[in-house]
Automatic annotation (TrEMBL):
CDD domains: cupin_KduI_C, cupin_KduI_N. This is 4-deoxy-L-threo-5-hexosulose-uronate ketol-isomerase. Zn(2+) binds at residues 197, 199, 204, 246. HAMAP family: KduI (MF_00687). Pathway: Glycan metabolism; pectin degradation; 2-dehydro-3-deoxy-D-gluconate from pectin: step 4/5. The lineage of its organism: Bacteria, Pseudomonadati, Bacteroidota, Cytophagia, Cytophagales. Its EC number is 5.3.1.17. The gene is kduI.
Length: 279
């Protein structure tokens, strides 16, 4: 086996109020996503999303089933979205080969049996993925930035000028419940998802990259009236429960990938919280 998936339980907001720094990091932060020649990740009971990283260096890696799924193959009852955050690479999907460049995405639907991830020539293949339960098969589809739905928000004056690439959303590619996209902050901007929001009908996961090794992001979470923070490094992810805000500020600009699963596919289904209302 070259796959390691850890299980994490859902957390009640009243319990989280009592967590210290180490407990917050233990329950919500995913630190070691990319392990050489492994598929690594977390199965969270928040909408049963799997958050993971794929890092083939010396050999190709197949998408193996894991014990948590009790399935004969990984996508028997699941769909998966993959975004390339490294060098160009190739992914085989039931014998069909897809070439995935940096920051391109691939959606693979429920029922696909064989998925193989190939290393790039320079050993810098880093693939980030989210996988959610699925009840229906939709076709495999590659999505580039030019195919995405693109929105620019914020302003440099508020330190939150950013471009959002909606890659794997229902206006671009049909999915059961999974949605994924990427947000790039402009130089001089550091705040993401500000004003903050919650969405009780969907959980979310954030993955931070495109920053130097000596830079960091302070990720904010918790109920709007009882917030907490987690300091994060490049190539780390964080689980955001439905009751929690998910915002951040970095020591430089950066890019992050957001992924959602839950009740609906309505990107705008959120309850916005004004900055002055946060505590």
């Amino acid at each position: 086996m070259h796959t390691n998936i850890e299980t994490r339980y859902a957390n009640h907001p009243a319990d989280v109020k009592n967590y210290d720094t180490s407990q917050l990091r233990e329950h919500f932060l995913i630190e070691n996503l990319f392990v050489e020649d492994h598929i690594n990740g977390v199965y969270t009971l928040n909408d049963r999303l799997i958050v993971g990283g794929i890092h083939p260096v010396n050999k190709a890696l197949s998408l193996e089933t894991v014990d948590q799924l009790k399935a004969s193959y990984f996508l028997e009852r699941r769909e998966i979205g993959i975004i390339n955050v490294g060098a160009p690479t190739k992914i085989e999907v039931d014998g069909e080969t897809f070439e995935l460049a940096h920051k391109e995405a691939l959606y693979i639907g429920q029922g696909v049996k064989d998925v193989v991830f190939h290393p790039s020539g320079d050993g810098h293949t880093y693939l980030y993925f989210n996988s959610a339960p699925a009840h229906k098969n939709f076709p495999t589809k590659k999505v580039s930035q030019k195919d995405a739905e693109v929105v620019t928000l914020g302003a440099l004056e508020n330190s939150n000028h950013r471009t959002i690439y909606k890659l794997l959303v229902n206006s671009v590619v049909p999915t059961c419940q999974l949605q994924m996209g990427m947000t790039e902050l402009k130089p001089g901007s550091v705040w993401n998802t500000m004003p903050a929001h919650t969405h009780d009908r969907r959980m979310e996961a954030y993955f931070y990259f495109d920053m130097n090794e000596d830079q960091a992001v302070c990720h904010y979470m918790g109920q709007p009236e009882e917030t907490r923070h987690i300091w994060m490094k490049k190539h780390q992810a964080v689980i955001s429960p439905p009751w929690s805000i998910h915002s951040g500020a970095g020591t430089s600009n950066y890019t992050f990938i957001w992924g959602m699963a839950g009740e609906n596919l309505d990107y705008g289904d959120m309850d916005t919280v004004a900055p002055i209302a946060l505590k």
